[in-house]
Amino acid sequence: MSAIRSRGNAATELRLIALFRAHGITGWRRGASLQGKVEGLKLKAFCAKPDFVFRPHKLAVFVDGCF
After folding, report:
1. Is residue 3 part of a domain?
2. Distance separating alpha carbons of residues 52 and 34, to the nearest angstrom
3. How far apart are CA 60 and CA 34, in angstroms?
4. pLDDT of 18
5. Which residues of 15-54 are buried (b: 16+ CB within 10 A; e: fewer)?
6. pTM value?
7. 55 versus 13: which is more confidently predicted?
8. What is the DSSP string of 5-17?
9. 45 vs 37: CA distance, rounded Å
10. Within a domain: residue 4?
């Protein structure tokens, strides 16, 4: 499985953007990094790069176009 490389999921992300716009969902950023401290865990910080980030709500969406 490690030899299989992703070719991108741009079509899936673009479809999700179209759905966000069609339903009037705002406040998202595409490809923004999400950094912060994890409370209650031994980890000092985490760094992730989700596909969509809703910053005011601290919500991240990861899109997997393979399926």
Report:
1. no
2. 10
3. 8
4. 94
5. ebeeebeeeeeeebeeeeeeeeeeeeeeeeeeeeebbbbb
6. 0.64
7. 13
8. -----HHHHHHHH
9. 4
10. no
